[in-house]
Amino acid sequence: MAEISPNQMNYLKKLEKRKRKITAARAAVFVLFFLLWQICSDLEIIDSFIFSSPKDIMLCAANMAVNSSLLFHTAVTAGETIAGFLLSTFLGTALAVILWWNTFLNDVSEPYLVVLNSIPKTALAPVIIVWFGNNISAIIIVALLTSVIVTVLNVLSAFNETDGDMVKLIYTLGGTKKDVLFKVILPANIPAVMNALKVNTGLSFIGTIIGEMLVAKYGLGYLIIYGSQIFRLDMVMMAVVILALLSTVLYKLIVMLEKYIDTKVK
Amino acid sequence: MTDAVKIENLSFSFNTPKGEHFVLKDISFSVADGEFVAIAGPSGCGKSTLLSLIAGLLKPAGGSIKIGDGKKCGYMLQRDYLFEWRSVLSNTCLGAEISKELTDEKRCYALSLLKKYGLADYIKSRPSALSGGMRQRAALIRTLVPQPDILLLDEPFSALDYQTRLNVCQEISDIIKNEGKTAIMVTHDISEAISVSDRVIVLSKTPAVIKGEFKIEMPYGNTRRDDPKFRQYFNSIWKELQDNG
Q1: Confidence (pTM)
Q2: Which of A63, A142, B51, B103 is spaced 20 to 30 Å from B216 by Cα?
Q3: A173, B87: Cβ pair inside 8 Å?
Q4: Chain A residues inside the 8 Å CB shell of B126
């Protein structure tokens, strides 16, 4: 290996230092936020009955962890959300493939897709629960609905923006439309699908929480609505904190999946 | 010598809502087996359309295109379009894969071409590891693997920078000569056309007609550009292109 010049060494050191500083600052913001919250509530600057406090939240979590109901509610929400965004990404991509394939269908459905996309999907949640029952599948359908249309639109536009000469290449090699789909359109647009997956995690969470609030049996959405009804704000805040953690974990998992796909050479 | 391609009274037009756009008008020429023909013309004159017609990607509006018995066409596009999600070897096998002829024999053929033309170390690499010239060679190998008899080259060097372009142009045409293929190359670069081809056909602006044909009588090789005749050919083709009549 070539020797590293002092100049390069300096540069690398600076880079490393900056990285450490950023990590430290991020941790500081996190600690400071919760510390300040706790202090304010201890000194009764804020009313801990309304605003809760980190200590109360942790106590609440510990109590609920003992009878394992916390794990149950978290697992329900995580499961519904994952089912929601996987289904919506898969279904949305499949619909995009159909519309890419059939331009007539594409042109016919375009105005409907645009209108459906602009409807706030959460407005449909009560209807979905009436139709599909007061159960988990209704919640998953709400989660699916929040993100499926936007997936179709995004993935389809990525399909249609694929370089025309790449498509021509397949035809020059004697390929058919099916070859174009499987050899160019799908592999070239994996980044677009992964992006849809990322966006759908967030949207799917919204759908799941709304669904759980309405069905009100279990899940973090249920804890939020139940906690606010009985004025247990520590329970509400705890649920929100767990939601934040959950979405971070899911996001990281998708980034890992993306990296894994990216390193795979055929 | 037999004809590899024979084109008679070919015409073509695109239909748009605003009206019909005539691209080619009454084009007739033939290309002999093993010949390297360059087609020069102003930008947007329908040169690429002509290649697409020969390749059978478009249907002529009038006239006919005859490809010699049992002969196959291979097409090389302006840019290499090597797929980043495939290895170099897998990219070069794409044609065989599409025609469902991807046998071990075909794979070996692709490998032997990659080795022969200096890409042995990059077989498993991704295309981004290759230089501009290497990418173009890999793209040519992808065209060669299905074993076509006639190569259709659509401005294959126009995306390269000038210096790379001179070298790659020579390299690619050496490979084509070496493999004994018939070639039709479309270009807007006159010197490129003269330096590699046996004959240059000049097209007019759209609707394109053949304005002139120049037989290049110089020995093939990289000494052509130094030949005093090079300048003469250049000037007469240039004049032909300028003359809009």
Answers
A1: 0.85
A2: B51
A3: no
A4: 265
